Amino acid sequence: MPEEISPTQLGSRPKLGDFDAVIIGAGMAGASLAYELASHMRVLVLERESQPGYHTTGRSAALFSEIYGNDIVRALSRASRAFLEAPGAGFAEHPLLTPRGTLFFAAAGQIEQLHALHGEVAPRSAVVRWFEADELRGRLPALRPEFAQAGLFEPDASDIDVHALHQGYLRGARQQGATLICDAELESASYVRDRWTVQSRAGQCSAALLVNAAGAWADDLAQMAGAAPLDLAPLRRTALVFEDHQAWDSRNWPLAVDIDEQLYFKPDAGRLLASPADETPSPPCDAQPDEFDVAVLLDRLERMTLLRPKRITGRWAGLRTFAPDRTPVAGFDAHAANFFWLAGQGGYGIQTAPALALLSASLILGKPVPDRLAAQGVTAQGLSARRFERVQPAEN
Ligand SMILES: Cc1cc2nc3c(=O)[nH]c(=O)nc-3n(C[C@H](O)[C@H](O)[C@H](O)COP(=O)(O)OP(=O)(O)OC[C@H]3O[C@@H](n4cnc5c(N)ncnc54)[C@H](O)[C@@H]3O)c2cc1C
Fold it and tell me: 21 and 43 in contact (C-beta within 8 Å)?
């Protein structure tokens, strides 16, 4: 963990010092950027909660898939694979990725959609395989035959050890000199004479650069700092872990998702994790599962599969925060000086963290997009905060 200072040690509103960059939020976004920046500049990370992974980072389905999301998200995921496979000595005690596979399944009326996805991803994705009904059902016997007419299999998809990745970033940031302060909610930020003055619950500091890695709160934080919001939308998603009625040997099942993304499920440490893939708009908050979404999930499990939860052992919800075009935002604000956005990662913020952090650090340090990102099709323009600028109508 980065060097931690508790507010009680500091007394009330102490001076925390002068920094080159203050990052707000220590979820996957803030932690990964601190890791990439810390050897180049003095970095302070301020986190509101006492646990840095408390919000969306600690509530994901922990999947790495190169064919999930739009083209830009896929490029970021491909560009993140090398780091996740080999993060470097001492980053984590165990491999961050464990083979899982992803299997999109389709009913008879959805085969065209499956073909369309195949056509989109096949040219750039390492390997995807078409499954006819027999192979699909052999692979996933829990699917009801009418929903399992064809499948698209991505064998190289993996489970991510999210905790190890997050902790590896935080530990590595500290080893390079970054400071993390928890229980340090940002209260105000003002930019005067080329520097940010930042007030938090843990104390006051100044910095040349303010980074917005506040997840679901990113628009609120921008407004607090005098920047315009980007219309980011936090959308609630629910997940359950359960023991099934039937003793399936599910160890080698891939993550299964229907082509309309109404349901997904995968093995989870001897049990099954499932989600109705809900996207309910929500204000930024400590999201909790809603009984209605749980009922929808149980209904979809019954309609599409032979799974019958016997005992629910865990349930949670988290906010996936999307920009209007469902592409992450990594770049300087169009108007607010030295205000950098790393937000809107939607449902891909774990698997794309290595590439987004590297790109963001390069932009902040004034360097070109690294070759290994550019080689996968990642561009600064595609992720820029300035892409939302509205063209002003010409005056007569
Ligand atoms: C059910 C579910 C399944 C998912 N599955 C996957 C998946 O399989 N693969 C994948 O890649 N992604 C997945 N995601 C998405 C992924 O979890 C997110 O994209 C990622 O965690 C976002 O990280 P973050 O750091 O931006 O947000 P967060 O983890 O929410 O971190 C933001 C932090 O900012 C802090 N903060 C906010 N305001 C302030 C303030 N004023 N002062 C100080 N601190 C502040 C918050 O306390 C919070 O800790 C899933 C998400 C959900 C909910």
Answer: yes
